[in-house]
Write a structure and sequence with these properties.
55% helix; single chain; globular; N-(1-d-carboxylethyl)-l-norvaline Dehydrogenase, domain 2; 13 helices; eight-stranded mixed beta sheet; 2 domains
Length: 318
């Protein structure tokens, strides 16, 4: 059987992480970037990340066997020739995406899935005029997709159900956790949920209710612990003896009252500058990259723990 072939367009952080996702799933990966310097650094960076995954027991093959499945291509046409999926990861500029997808529509097989990693642009904004627009969709990952498996699949009004079904099967085969966004909405699901929480956190900070560090603690050592293995609906279902209706009866009025007190954050320069100052006291700007690497390793440790717990649960039920 021929392994699936995937083209990853854009070799920044997201593109490199996608390359790892597909390569460790035994897909053939072709990596392209319009910037030769970015492309030159991609394979060494991927090799380092795969080594980290090895350290935490998250890959089962030798490092080089995985890295060898990724090929850097100097020409877009070579990268996308005869592939099953194109995963685009370029700048969030609709005109640039529109131009690239027009090229992809001409260069690829008629059945190749054309997916964008965009965080907020609906597929309809850059695929409307394409002959092959029915095969286009958004496949929005969480940074980095090699460690956070969620991918949100959202089509344009003209994307066929068959396209979404094929995409879901392919991402599942790659080890991801795809969800379907049933109609277009800016920001999709994750960013809209994150946006509500971020807006309230920033508002509470700006109004002087807590420091940035303490608000981070509320999430990290409070909500985040539960939300690392269950969602908000399961959380409330378990937090009242009678499940969701019981929780709504007990706490619904309290949550409704928050709306009267809520003050949306306006992203004022003064508040952002104060937040940045607090963060820079904790983390100098030139250490952000190393802290990001620390974050990734923490995610690896969490994934390794979840994998071990899942195996333990399976053993108990077998």
């Amino acid at each position: 059987m021929v392994n699936k072939r995937v083209a990853v367009i854009g070799s920044g952080r997201i593109g490199r992480a996608w390359a790892i996702v597909f390569a460790r799933a035994r897909f053939e990966v072709r990596l392209y970037d319009a910037d030769p310097t970015m492309l030159d650094g991609a394979i060494p960076s991927i090799r380092d990340s795969v080594a980290d995954l090895r350290e935490y027991g998250l890959i089962e093959e030798p490092d080089e066997q995985i890295v060898s499945r990724v090929t850097a291509c100097e020409k877009l046409a070579d990268a996308v020739h005869d592939v099953d999926l194109v995963q685009e990861n370029i700048a969030e500029i609709v005109e640039v995406k529109r131009a690239l997808f027009a090229e992809l529509d001409k260069l690829t097989r008629p059945d190749t899935l054309l997916a964008s990693s965009t965080s907020g642009l609906p597929a309809s904004t850059f695929t409307e005029d394409l002959a092959g627009r029915a095969r286009c969709l958004v496949a929005h990952p969480v940074n980095p997709p090699s460690l956070v498996p969620l991918v949100e699949l959202c089509g344009a009004p003209w994307t066929t159900p068959q396209t979404l079904a094929r995409a879901r099967a392919l991402y599942e085969e790659a080890g991801q956790q795809p969800v379907i966004v049933t109609r277009e909405i800016p920001g999709f699901l994750l960013n809209r949920l994150q946006g509500v929480l971020l807006d309230e956190a920033l508002s509470l900070f700006a109004r002087g209710y807590a420091s940035a560090a303490d608000l981070d603690t509320v999430m990290r050592d409070g909500l985040g612990l539960r939300w690392s293995f269950m969602g908000p609906f399961e959380t409330i279902d378990l937090n009242a003896p009678g499940g969701v209706p019981d929780y709504a009866k007990r706490y619904g009025a309290m949550y409704r009252s928050f709306a009267a007190d809520s003050v949306p954050f306006d992203w004022s320069q003064e508040s952002i500058a104060r937040l940045d100052a607090e963060r820079r006291d904790v983390l100098p700007r030139d250490e952000i990259e190393s802290r990001s690497r620390w974050r990734d390793r923490q995610l690896m440790a969490l994934l390794a723990h979840r994998r071990a717990m899942s195996k333990s649960d399976d053993d108990k039920t077998s």
